[in-house]
Amino acid sequence: MATSPQNPGPSARAASRPDVPAQASSHGSATPQARARFELLLKQVGESRPNEDLSIIVRAYELSERYHAGQMRASGEPYLIHPIEVALVLTEMKMDPQAIAAGLLHDSVEDTSITIEEIEKQFGEQVAHIVEGVTKISKIDFASGEERQAENVRKMLLAMVDDIRVVIIKLADRLHNMRTLEFLPRDRQEKIAHETMEIYAPIAHRLGMGKLRGELEDLAFRYMDPLAYQQVKEAVEARSKAGDAFLQHVLTIIREKLQENAIEAKVESRVKRLYSIQQKLIRQRITVDQVYDLLAIRIITKSVRDCYAVLGAIHQLWPPVPGRIKDFIAMPRPNLYQSLHTTVIAENGTPFEVQIRTEEMHKMAEEGIAAHWKYKDGPVAARDEERLAWLRQVMEWQQEMTDPGEFLSTLKIDLYPEEVYTFTPKGKIVILPRDATAVDFAYSIHTEVGHACVGARVNGRMAPLRQRLRSGDIVEIITQSGHTPSRDWLSFVRSSRSRQKIKHWLNEHERERAIEIGRKLIEKEARRYRVSLKNIEEAAFQKVASEYGFGRMEELFAGLGYGKFSARQVLGKLAPETTEQPRADSEGSEEAKPGAISSVVRRVFGSGGEGAIKVRGYGDLMVYRARCCNPIRGEEIVGYVTRGKGVAVHSRSCPNVTNLMYEADRKIAVEWGRDAARGYPVKLTVFCDDRKGMLKQITAIISDDNTNIRNIEARTANSQATIDVVLDIEDLKHMERIISGLRRIAGVRDVQRVKKI
Ligand code: MN
After folding, report:
1. For residue 726, what are the CA distances in angstroms to 395, 451, 593, 628?
2. What is the mean predicted confidence (pLDDT) over 704-719?
3. Cβ distance 295 to 352 under 8 Å?
4. pLDDT tens for residues 480-531?
5. What's the gap in Å between 80 CA and the centre of ligand 1?
6. Active-site choice (107, 110, 218, 516)
7. What separation in Å is there between the alpha carbon of 82 and the centre of ligand 1?
8. Which of 292, 425, 481, 726 sits at 20 to 30 Å (Cα–Cα) from 322?
9. How far is the CA of 102 from the centre of ligand 1 (A)?
10. Residue 681, phi-psi category: left (phi > 0), alpha (psi -120 to 50), beta (remainder)
11. More reliable by pLDDT, 211 or 563
């Protein structure tokens, strides 16, 4: 030992942690209780790892004993008990000696005078690295504001990706703290319980550690809602006592049946976890008496084949409840849980659940990523990789996510996987979050498929992109090359992957357009004030950009394009000497100027008509028809540079125009391009008598004009009818022709255009 142990002082931050060591007056070494627990630990490790050198564990214990000497826990026990219990949890998980040593040392850097460097010197780089990771996570306060919380979860995920043992130790640490939570004051209990429920239990779940997750949840439940906890607990106890005889009866029948079929298997009964019962009660609005999988049978077999054989045997004994047979062996859950589930009805009418799985699956379900620890270099290590892949994916997404609130909500969706199982037409399984849509499906196939998707066939039928998918749906995505994502999709996609991909695409493309618009705006402004931009040096642009807090010129243009500030302001800074009045002919001069930007015409995107609008004097700008007035070719229109969405084109008569145009320098001249448009959806309302043949006459007028009807809806009341019809209209003349045709029908009182569709 290089340094002599110093008297450790309680750190300032320690008071915010559940396992805070407090200074005791006596300086004793380990108590008999601590020694006994450590000896048990050594015995267990020795049994599971008979040929390994365990001296690292002994050395870690000795160091921990010395440095934590005199510290007490809130329970009044010596502090040393805590790292030993944490290490025992790790031992039960069959973790490797390094991880167990790190478990014994996990609080030493945080709460005693020892340094990471010292630990590295004595125990090697890996142990030091793990202890450092655990120490870092321990400093995180997950209950802080949303922004901080997101940042903290991010840090924790980083640590996990780095070495999964860090988070396994952190989970073991949290488990022991939760087991001893009763010694803390009420407000601390609540805070720690919430954090456990929101962060730690879901992470344990994602890592497939079912047993640890179950205990964490039950403990957290107990402190979050003591009353409900007590109620559920008592109800379950009462029922399992009553059900005991029944269960024994069922167990006997199953054992006999298995023997008869010469299947070797372990048969046991289990009572559902209290917290998951509580969840069920809330979700299904039922009482404990109505929870039929409260009592369940678990059968653990030697092989996958036996699992299915057992399932068959069980169904021979009792009839299964339709729709309750789940094959998680063929279709593992995303956390790699595998098992067969079925619910059957006993002779007396009592339904009960049977879970059937192999020993290996059982271990996986209970211990998850920790189950494979001792085979680290074996063939199953690939599965750990899959689990880590999830973490890496989350990390990747969050790097693109700038809004911490959004990151957190995304993470919550990913941590609480309630997924739907859908299929490609070829039968490949696609697992999506609950309420996912065809767009989510498309993005899970491939980013490009997502971008280009225009429709979907669900179970052979055409379905809208926003339709929510259900388990078992067979989904075929229809794509169209050149199709691009719509901002609208963000309102209904569910998976973080699709959300990210769509946002990324929109940001990239909108930024490009914003830069373009911004550049044009400043050019236009310069011409109005007879300022030659050519004579302004790039350095001047740079200077103005940095005045607005931007590093690059492009960002200044993008800011202009997004409408964050006006071109006049920027020009004023670029050429402060400009006091001249703008030229009167400014609008018209642009196109006359030699070498002016050619008018590129851009097709309007969106599901509406494919009209063409050009922005006079400007290049390829993002242009769209405003939804409030849906202008059609032939109408007088005006453009308006929006904040971040390009140029909105309004009808000049649109009431919004007057409201928008108070910022005059965001107005842009636009005109209809010469492209033959296929038509825009236009909604007309026909007010008429409710008489026989009316609908037929109306549709005749429309189809005689070669016009496509998108939708028609009629309402009648008091022998009067109101008919809404959505048509594909080419231009203003086309619409006026149809309207006057409809007005000539006897019994039609009025025809009006509904501008907003
Ligand atoms: Mn601890």
Report:
1. 46, 27, 43, 16
2. 84
3. yes
4. 887 888 877 888 898 888 988 898 888 878 778 778 888 888 888 888 788 7
5. 10
6. 110
7. 7
8. 425
9. 11
10. beta
11. 211
CATH topology of domain 680-754: Alpha-Beta Plaits (3.30.70)
The verdict on whether 92 is a catalytic residue reads no
Residue 671 amino acid letter: E
What are 523-558's pLDDT values in tens digits? 888 887 887 877 777 888 888 888 888 888 888 888
**Residue 598 C-alpha from the chain's centroid:** 44
Tokens of 280: 């069920």
The CA distance from 468 to 223, in Å, is 37
The 10 Å Cβ neighbour count of residue 689 is: 14
**In 3D, which of 149, 44, 143, 61 has the Cα closest to residue 103?**
61
Distances (CA, A) of 658 to 369, 566, 624, 654, 723: 63, 19, 18, 8, 31
Delimit the domains of the chain by residue range.
Answer: 22-221, 232-370, 503-592, 613-672, 680-754
What is the distance between the alpha carbons of residues 397 and 400, in angstroms, rounded to a whole number? Answer: 6
Q: How many other C-beta atoms can be found within 10 angstroms of the C-beta atom of residue 424?
A: 15
Pairwise CA distance, residues 82 & 76, whole Å: 12
- Measured in angstroms, how far is the CA atom of residue 31 from the centroid of ligand 1? 19
- Ligand 1 mean position, distance from CA 414 (Å): 27
Quick one: pLDDT at residue 13?
38
What is the torsional sign of CA 656, 659, 663, 664?
A: positive
All residues at 6 or more sequence positions from 548 whose CB lies less than 8 Å from its CB, including other chains = 556, 559, 565
Q: Give whichever of 185-189, 621-625, 679-683 has the largest mean pLDDT.
A: 185-189
110 is catalytic: yes
Ion ligand 1, residue ranges at CB < 5 A:
19, 107, 173
Q: Rounded to whole angstroms, how far apart are CA atoms 367 and 448?
A: 38
Stated pTM of the model: 0.52
CA 198 / ligand 1 centre spacing (Å): 19
d(CA 701, CA 680): 18
Per CATH, the number for 232-370 is 3.30.460.10
Query: CATH for 22-221, among 3.10.310.40, 1.10.3210.10, 3.40.50.620, 3.40.50.1860?
Result: 1.10.3210.10
Residue 222 Cα, ligand 1 centroid: separation in angstroms?
Answer: 21
